[in-house]
Specification:
Strand content: 15-25%
Order of helices and strands: EEEEEEEEEHEHHHHHHHHH
Length: 294
């Protein structure tokens, strides 16, 4: 299955269901360039995610200081509830799978508490598996086996393969995850989520950097630091892009005038709105409406 867009809520939580309540597992055979934006935008989910770069190169961003590049043959593990973004300037084919931690073992079980919970509670957001590193070979082999099971196996084959993958992973990197402190990265992400919720609730009103920072109980400088570290942008830029996205939706799904839409999305100056919209979407609001409705 190939997704073409990452749909998220106001906190960037992905809205796509991955599997079912009875079997919370999903397999995707994707090419990054087929996503509508040409990349997989910022999002997070409760599932654990595994990616194999079958072809091309892939850039994964978790925070400004933890961007990594993967080559063909490399793999990636992304922890649950971690904001991340995937890009591929040269193109990449990335078969991947997602599953809830409870697929591995019941939450109250000894297996979950000993081998799953420490990874979830750690301060590490991702792990890179290098094809050139012999130490990563067992995990990459188990990842390939899990992908093969997802393509043609039944639920039992898939669950057994996922358990084998997790066993190989915790044996290779479990100690490093357990030792990682859950510190400033997790705190910055929590603060950003609180500020995003404030922005999405008040975007139609006058919003200031001071008000955004106050929503997380921090200073303006700390708000800037958290946004830069987590999303590589500023609170004001996030607000602008959110307003433009809401304006685009109104252009496509209502008959409201451009002026009414601009005001409804918090733009007090119509000329400024038209300039920003044109810069972001490559055409004026009126042209965008005409082109996409036709």
């Amino acid at each position: 299955m190939q997704l073409t867009e990452i749909r998220t809520d106001d906190t960037l939580r992905e809205l796509q269901d991955h599997g079912t309540p009875e079997f919370p597992f999903a397999f995707y055979d994707e090419t990054v360039q087929q996503f509508r934006k040409g990349y997989i935008d910022w999002h997070w989910h409760s599932e654990l995610e595994w990616v194999l770069v079958a072809q091309g190169t892939l850039d994964c961003r978790v925070a400004a200081d933890t961007a990594v590049r993967l080559q063909a043959g490399d793999g990636l593990f992304c922890n649950a509830r971690v904001l991340h973004r995937l890009e591929s300037p040269q193109g990449a084919h990335i078969p991947n799978l997602l599953f809830l931690p409870e697929l591995l073992a019941p939450r109250q079980s000894a297996v979950y508490q000993a081998y799953v919970a420490p990874v979830l509670a750690s301060g590490r957001g991702l792990a890179v598996l290098r094809a050139a590193d012999p130490a990563d070979a067992p995990v990459l082999a188990a990842l390939q086996a899990a992908l093969d099971a997802a393509r043609g196996g039944d639920a039992l084959d898939i669950q057994l393969a996922v358990l084998a993958l997790w066993r190989a992973f915790v044996r290779a990197q479990g100690a490093a995850f357990a030792a990682a402190p859950a510190g400033r990265d997790a705190l910055a992400q929590a603060r950003v989520m609180a500020m995003m919720q404030y922005i999405t609730a008040h975007f139609a009103q006058k919003v200031t950097l001071a008000g955004i920072a106050a929503a997380a109980g921090i200073s303006k400088s700390e708000a800037l630091r958290c946004f830069h570290k987590t999303l590589q942008t500023t609170p004001v830029q996030f607000l602008l892009h959110y307003r433009l996205g809401r304006a685009r939706d109104l252009l496509l799904h209502t008959d409201d005038t451009v002026t009414a839409i601009a005001i409804a999305c918090g733009f007090e100056n119509i000329s400024y709105f038209v300039r920003q919209f044109s810069a972001h979407f490559g055409m004026t609001p009126k042209a965008y409406r005409q082109a996409n409705r036709s």
